[in-house]
Amino acid sequence: GILGTLAIFTFIESQKIINMVDSVAIKPLSIITSTIIGYVILADPLSKYHFIAVLFAVIGALMIGQPPFIMQIFGYKEECVGNIQTQWIGYLLAFISSFCMGFVFLCIRTASKAPAFLLISSQTLCNI
């Protein structure tokens, strides 16, 4: 519940700093972070196809979001990409949100014997 609340809070805070489209493009990476965390912590198998899919998903999210600190590397002028000094915080918050949500997915998967009501209500109780 605490991780879910942190994911929601950081997602909302990231939308205050960066464009909503960028924040929403990063949010689905929670499935990718869940895959990586599952591989590291639970020793889930990760084939080369999974690795390629993870790589393409991250590249796709970066292409959709077009973070200014990366766009400046490719030669875009600063006035075209916005305030680089503060926007990286918004992207960091969006990635933290994605990481926390991926960890929530992993916790729910490992808590398969817990009652569904308890799993659903834990985030609700933390949000109050």
Task: Describe this protein's structure.
The chain has helices at residues 2-17, 20-26, 30-41, 48-65, 68-71, 78-81, 84-110, 116-127. The protein is an all-alpha fold. α1 (2-17) runs antiparallel to α7, α2 (20-26) packs antiparallel against α4 (48-65) and α3 (30-41) crosses α7 (84-110). The radius of gyration is 16 Å and the shape is flat. The mean pLDDT is 75.
Structural features:
about 130 residues; mainly alpha; 8 helices; about 80% helix; about 0% strand
**Helix and strand sequence:** HHHHHHHH
Number of strands: 0
Mean pLDDT: 75
Tally the helices: 8
Q: What share of the residues lie within helices?
A: over 70%
Which secondary-structure class do the elements indicate? mainly alpha
Shape: flat
Largest sheet: none
Share of β-strand residues: under 5%
Whole-number radius of gyration? 16 Å
**Uncertain segments of ≥5 residues (pLDDT<50)?**
none
Distance between the ends: 11 Å
